[in-house]
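Page 47, continued from p. 46.
Same chain as before, 265 aa.
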Amino acid sequence: MMFLYTFLAIAGLALVALCALRLRDELAERREWARLAALQPVNPPLYDPAMLAGLAEPAQRFFNFAIAPGTPLLTVAEIDMIGQLSLGSRETPNYQQMKARQILAAPVGFVWKLRLPGVMSVSGSDSGLWTRFRMLALFPVARLGGNADHRRAAFGRYVAEALFWTPAALLPSPWVAWDKLGEHSARVTVSHMGLTQAVEVELDGEGRPLKVYFMRWSDANPEKQYRLQPFGGNLSDFREVQGFRLPFNVEAGNMFGTDDYFAFY
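Result:
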């Protein structure tokens, strides 16, 4: 009987600790979300194609497709997502139905809050500061972050996503530079707080971004070692949102453009 009481006491303490950890994580998510939301300009300038004077033609074509003249240049977006996320490998994808919300505030940061419903539901969040996911709302299955590798990998992600979800954040500035690669392609390079990321975009004749790809700092490889490797995806189903034309369908994954490409998202 004493063993049972001891076991129940330990289990109870463990449950309290897990609940406290989840609460702390959720408070951190709310604080970071609020910090990024506060970066939205209150009275932003309005888009004028004349802002692009001297910019490479493919980049001008991209912005003129993505932003209608007179649109307030909002640089922070809150995004609701539904779709599929793989919990497996290229050979056995094990796609799961996904629901997520994200705030994107390049080049400063992002928070992605994920929920995979099901018997063994997974929930949690990813950001430039952490990766934290739990099973059954309590039990940690991933707790990463707080180091240079994680920060660099996350920076690549949200700079690339800014290109198609918050294009106003990538207008030319002292920390954003554009280069022409070809008639229908361009490269944007973003620098912030000691990090630099280049992202390439392939466009159609109207300036619609079709493919986004870059070399990402990642450990998504058999050796689980951080290194630069291809990442990217395909964009489609563009719709107008507050003067911006944004993709409502995104497919992305590691090793984009190679025979090993795996669209896990």
